[in-house]
Amino acid sequence: MNNIFQKNISALIQKNPELAARLGGFVPTKLPELVQENGSYNLKYNGLFIHNKQNPLGEAQEIFSMATNEPVAIHVIYGIGLGYLFQIACRNSLGTVILYEPDLNVLWTAFTLVDFSDDILKNNVFLTDNLEDTSSEIYKKSNTLNTPQLLSLPSVRELDKDGFEELVRILQEIVGSYSLDLKFTKEKFYPSLKMLIQNIPSLIKEPPLARFKDIYKGKTAVIVSAGPTLDRNIDTLKKNRDKYILFTVGTAVKTLYQNGLKPDFLCIIETYNSSKQVEGLDLSDVYFITEPYASPELRNFKYKKTFSHISANSPINNFWTEICGENIEEYWTKGTVSYTAINSARILGCSKIVLVGQDLAYVEGQCYSKDSAYKDLSCEYNHETKKWEITAKDFDSFAMAISPSSDIEVGRATARRRLERLNNSLYYVKGIQGDMIPTESVYAAFVKPLSEYAEHFKGIKYINTSLVGAQINGYENMPLEEALKDSPVIENTDFDTTFKYDIDKIVENLDKSANSLNESLKLIEDGKQVLRNLLNNLKRRKTVDEDVLKLLKKVSLTYLNLTNDFSDKNKLYDLISAAGKIDLDYEMKMMRSFDYESVSRIAEKIMEYFNNAETCINEIVLMIKGVLNESINSKS
Fold first, then answer.
1. What is the mean pLDDT of residues 175-203?
2. Do 229 and 354 contact (CB within 8 A), yes or no?
3. Residue 490 pLDDT exceeds 60
4. Is the pLDDT of residue 294 over 90?
5. Cα separation, 376 vs 371, whole angstroms
6. CA angle 531, 535, 540 (to 5 degrees)
7. Residue 405 forms beta bridges with which residues?
8. H helical segments located in 297-394
9. pLDDT of residue 276 exceeding 70
């Protein structure tokens, strides 16, 4: 082991000890050849030069120059070679550098020839040889306002085409996944919190679903979604209706009703008013499964019974469980209602879970089932633009189907925004037939969580009946008729719904939480006063002097006190301020100097954060008092 290799390994031990151990004990099987071309060193591997033969350093500099370089940037380097691109990124990146080199032969060679120890030890640098660690590191560094940038040499992509395509696919899934999580945090935490508080008078009457664990033990569940292949399976669903428990998502329920199929369970978890999905339907014999934070309008319909699916990985629900004391570890979610339906079937004991209409892709130009709310959408290849495009065959019908407003112009505006978002988020996923098929980013992001769920809960048989949609690993692909052929007839099952929450305890916990939240207003006012002094000094002196910097430090400490210490003590504050914190943290990371303009800007942003937090706190406290006074205390 030469000195260069040992220095690199010693540095790597501090950043990724598992990789250091693998590399330290690695026995090369096929080493790249070190060659000298035009005065520069290069590697030749599998008959190809890894770097540009004329100017390898210039090639690396050009590739990095095309990337966005800012403090929130995530530069993913695919392949190390002799490290020209890796070192350029390490020494110039203002953000994060993640090196992914899956071939240990190449990484071992590079570590014996080039001293990377100083680069490896930098705080913003991470090295890995596997996609799992790459995914994890990207997720840690991600924000709603940044996207990983993949930087690689043309020859590296040529050496391992399949590996590169897999990395691109994984990156798309990662971006889709964290975008879902962060988008929900930024855009929906606060509205969802308000909905949950508004729902409390209903929630105290809704039994948690896990209270009926294994009631359908050994039975078959069919989960119906609104994908195009739902239409192909209607007859089989009707013919075998006595052999399965039928769960449906909201967008597919009208298709079922129009074909004489009544579901056992309806699952809707949207925070927006999606009541149009069920308008005009008799749901009195249907069980409703929903989230505590789902749109209050959904609870206005008459169901056989409503059950709470209190997703454990939703911070909104973590607040609710602190208030009500319910154990929520059974409730898994990933933001898609199909996932919620699958988890509900698992909680209730179903040993076989069959997916129908879960295409997660646009099949033969069709986006959704012909009777769903999105029936007018189609996905076709535009030969002029050379792109796949989603359009509405009947635009006005589509507009009125998705808009909660009866105003056609409002509906059209909603439809235009929806189509724009759909077209801007077109992705491609691996299909069941092995080809790459178009879909939207949200659906692409759902493939991995559904696969991971099947991998985790292994005692269940998972079947996908799409046959033409996205490949979901962990699910057997087979026709619906075959999936149901050995399923026993379902007997009538009654739910004992005598469960009751401890209302007095809920009242006490809500009151404590609201009173604690009020304490943050004093901290916010102190911070605002410091900011006013800071801004006055800036306005008067037109420069950043020592007094201004002291005030900036003082207000920054107040902000950290609120977002760290106080947030830990009061879950409500964390939920209220999450979106503002994401924006302000981004602004702070982007701040590169302490000149007059930069300090003025960040001070205004902190003031905006304080003002918004103050407004939201007052609104939430008022809502809680209303719930306590009008609903909980009456024990209606």
1. 76
2. no
3. yes
4. yes
5. 9
6. 150
7. none
8. 315-324, 337-347
9. yes
- Give the whole-angstrom CA distance, residue 560 versus residue 584: 11
Query: pLDDT per residue over 348-398, tens digit each?
Result: 999 999 999 998 887 766 666 666 667 778 877 777 877 778 888 888 888
At residue 138, what is the residue type?
I
Render pLDDT for 217-269 as a digit per residue (tens, 0 to 9): 999 999 999 988 999 999 999 999 999 999 999 999 999 999 999 999 999 99
Distance of alpha carbon 419 from alpha carbon 411, whole angstroms: 12
pLDDT for 172: 66
Quote the CA–CA distance of 237 and 626 in Å, as a whole number.
46
What percent of the chain shows pLDDT beyond 90? 53
Rounded to 5 degrees, φ, ψ at 382 are -90, 110
Give 551's contacts (C-beta < 8 A, 6+ positions apart): 530, 531, 533, 534, 537
**Mean pLDDT, rounded, of the chain:** 88
Calculate the dihedral angle through the C-alpha atoms of 610, 611, 614, 617, rounding to the nearest 10 degrees.
Answer: -100
Q: What is the mean pLDDT of residues 288-309?
A: 94
Report d(CA 322, CA 325) in Å as an integer: 6
Tokens of 616: 């939201």
Strand partners, 29: none
What percentage of the chain's residues is helix, strand, coil (to nearest 5)? 55, 15, 35
Q: How far is CA 359 from the centre of its chain?
A: 19
For residue 457, what are its two tokens?
Answer: 């809960």
Take residue 202 and report the two structure tokens written for it: 């209903």
Q: Is the pLDDT of residue 336 over 70?
A: yes
Instruction: Output 120 or 422, whichever has higher pLDDT.
Output: 120
Characterize the bridge pairing of strands 426-430 and 387-392.
Answer: unpaired
CB 348 within 8 A of CB 376: no
**What tens digit of pLDDT does each residue of 89-136 get?**
999 999 999 999 999 999 999 999 999 999 999 999 999 998 888 888
201-229 burial: b if 16+ Cβ within 10 Å, else e: bbbbebbbbbbbeebbeebbbbbbbbbbb
What is the pTM (predicted TM-score) of this model? 0.69
Are the CB atoms for 342 and 461 separated by under 8 Å?
no
Q: Which residues of 101-135 are buried (b: 16+ CB within 10 A; e: fewer)?
A: bbbbebbbbbbbbbbbbebbeeebbbbbbebebbb
How many other C-beta atoms can be found within 10 angstroms of the C-beta atom of residue 500? 9
CA-CA distance, 323 to 389, in Å (whole number)?
47
Beta partners for 440? 426
DSSP-H helix ranges across 403-502: 408-424, 441-456, 480-484
Contacting residues for 325 by C-beta, under 8 A, at least 6 apart: 502, 505
Closest among 265, 281, 258 to 371, alpha carbons compared:
258
Residue 392: enclosing H or E segment and its boundaries? strand 387-392
Would the pLDDT of 286 be above 90? yes
Percent of the chain at pLDDT exceeding 70: 93
b/e per residue, 455-479, with b = 16+ CB within 10 A? eeeeebebbbbbbbbbbbebbebee
Count the alpha carbons within 13 Å of 617 in the hemisphere toward its beta carbon: 27
Report how far residue 462's alpha carbon sits from residue 506's, in angstroms, rounded to the nearest whole number: 39
Strand-pair category, 220-224 with 352-356: parallel
Determine contact, residues 228/369, Cβ cutoff 8 Å: yes
